[in-house]
């Protein structure tokens, strides 16, 4: 009946709220198959994303949806994200869930007995004290419009409230725990019937009174530290704020660009076009080609091998990502000092990239052949061979 499907509309309602309000700590109560959490993990304004469900088996079957994808490792950002999944009842307290910015309860409370709804209210609004709470539940007034429905929408539902019953509950919550609420919903009725029956899923958006600029000071600090939930899964996503991740990304970029610049300079030496060096010229202000004298100064002896010395200031100027990661040449040098994969010069001012004697000999042989007229003779031979082939095919 609905397009998009009703469950997607409920999830999109939460996503739109997250985009507008940018909560850093979010917990989804009754997370079940983790489908809402899977969508929220891509909104990196969230730094801590938690799911709670009483059915640990269901959570375990679907928690693979929340693992970092390859892009998270290959292109980490400065955003931080930690995901935690717990098995536990929403009627029980757990100190790890106090002081969140947003709590979501999507189509959950109708699965509780009325006695448990009272406990749910005390735990969520009185103990957890989040900045905001989103609660959705079926609107029983809409049920006559659902084809073939007899009784409740799900066999496990303990009740389904009318709009008036829902208002009665959230008005009591606001009065007792210091919240204000906005009443809305998703799943509109057919034209002309919206006012009479309301939304298919009714939603209350609660905001705690007295909270400024999204700053959540946990109320009742003398409350007991209870840990009644069982941790099923936790993971920290790769972030450039983590020093180990930052170093791995930086080393990869340095090695790539050092090799690229070395190849570009070698091509300059043989008179070939260098895309890498042209890019570096642009980044460094276009100072012109590398002179033969300069080129010789870049080739240094490294024990038994020959290396090309790539100055750190050139790397920093040529690669925007390296400059963004480090902020200065001094920081770049400091971060590379203890990296075994990167070979630095004795003064720490340049990266040394292996350049084998064999490569030098091949270049010299190539230049000798060019000077001897070999290339011109080879071209004449190739042209004659082509003519013979064309004649044979006519």
Question: What attributes characterize this protein structure?
Answer:
394 residues, alpha/beta, Rossmann fold, eight-stranded mixed sheet, three-stranded antiparallel sheet, 15 helices, 43% helix, 17% strand, RNA-mediated gene silencing, Hen1
Describe the structure.
This protein is an alpha/beta fold and about 400 residues long. The protein folds into 2 domains: about 5-235, 3-Layer(aba) Sandwich (Rossmann fold), CATH 3.40.50; about 245-270 and about 290-355, no CATH class. The chain contains 15 helices and 11 strands. The chain has helices spanning about 5-20, 35-40, 55-60, 70-75, 115-130, 165-175, 195, 245-270, 275-285, 290-300, 310-320, 320-325, 330-335, 355-370, 375-394; strands at about 25-30, 50-55, 80-85, 100-105, 130-140, 180-185, 200-210, 230-235, 300, 305-310, 350-355. The strands form 2 sheets. It has an 8-stranded mixed sheet, with helices on both faces. Strands 9-10-11 form a 3-stranded antiparallel sheet. Helix 5 (about 115-130) links the parallel strand 4 and strand 5 (about 130-140). The longest helix has 27 residues, at about 245-270. The N and C termini lie far apart (about 70 Å). About 30% of the residues are buried. Residues about 275-280, about 280-295 and about 380-394 have low confidence and may be disordered. Belongs to the methyltransferase superfamily. HEN1 family.
Summarize the structure.
Keywords: Magnesium, Metal-binding, Methyltransferase, RNA-binding, RNA-mediated gene silencing, S-adenosyl-L-methionine, Transferase. By secondary structure, this protein is of the alpha/beta class. It has helices spanning 6-21, 35-40, 56-62, 70-74, 114-128, 163-177, 194-197, 243-269, 275-283, 292-298, 312-318, 320-326, 329-336, 357-371, 374-393, and strands spanning 25-29, 48-53, 82-87, 102-106, 132-138, 179-186, 201-208, 230-236, 299-302, 305-311, 350-354.
């Amino acid at each position: 009946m609905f397009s998009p499907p009703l469950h997607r509309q409920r999830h999109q309602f939460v996503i739109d709220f997250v985009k507008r309000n940018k909560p850093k700590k979010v917990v989804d109560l009754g997370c079940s198959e983790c489908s809402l959490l899977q969508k929220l993990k891509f909104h990196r304004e969230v730094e801590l994303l938690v799911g709670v469900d009483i059915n640990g088996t269901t959570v375990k079957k679907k928690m693979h949806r929340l693992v970092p994808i390859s892009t998270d490792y290959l292109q980490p950002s400065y955003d931080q994200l930690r995901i935690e999944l717990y098995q536990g009842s929403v009627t029980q307290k757990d100190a790890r869930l106090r002081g969140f910015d947003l709590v979501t309860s999507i189509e959950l409370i109708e699965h509780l007995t009325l006695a448990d709804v009272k406990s749910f209210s005390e735990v969520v609004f009185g103990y957890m004290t989040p900045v905001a709470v989103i609660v959705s539940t079926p609107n029983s007034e809409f049920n006559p419009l659902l084809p073939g429905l007899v009784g409740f929408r799900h066999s496990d539902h303990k009740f389904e409230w009318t709009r008036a019953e829902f208002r009665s509950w959230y008005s009591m919550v606001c009065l007792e725990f210091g919240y204000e609420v906005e009443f809305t919903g998703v799943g509109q009725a057919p034209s002309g019937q919206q006012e009479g029956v309301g939304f298919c899923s009714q939603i209350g958006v609660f905001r705690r009174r007295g909270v400024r600029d999204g700053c959540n000071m946990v109320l009742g600090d003398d409350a007991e530290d209870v840990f009644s939930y069982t941790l099923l899964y936790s993971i920290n996503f790769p972030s450039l704020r983590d020093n180990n991740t930052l170093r791995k990304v930086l080393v990869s970029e340095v090695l790539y660009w050092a090799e690229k610049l070395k190849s570009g300079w070698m091509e300059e030496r043989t008179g070939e076009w260098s895309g890498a060096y042209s890019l570096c010229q642009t980044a460094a202000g276009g100072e012109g080609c590398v002179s033969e004298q300069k080129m010789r100064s870049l080739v240094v002896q490294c024990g038994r091998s020959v290396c090309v010395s790539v100055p750190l200031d050139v790397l920093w100027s040529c690669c925007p990502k390296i400059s963004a990661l480090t902020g200065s040449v001094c920081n770049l040098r400091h971060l590379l000092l203890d990296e075994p994969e990167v070979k630095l010069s004795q003064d720490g001012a340049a990266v040394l990239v292996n350049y084998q004697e064999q490569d030098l000999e091949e270049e010299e042989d190539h230049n000798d052949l060019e000077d001897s007229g070999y290339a011109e003779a080879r071209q004449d031979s190739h042209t004659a061979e082509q003519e013979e082939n064309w004649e044979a095919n006519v």
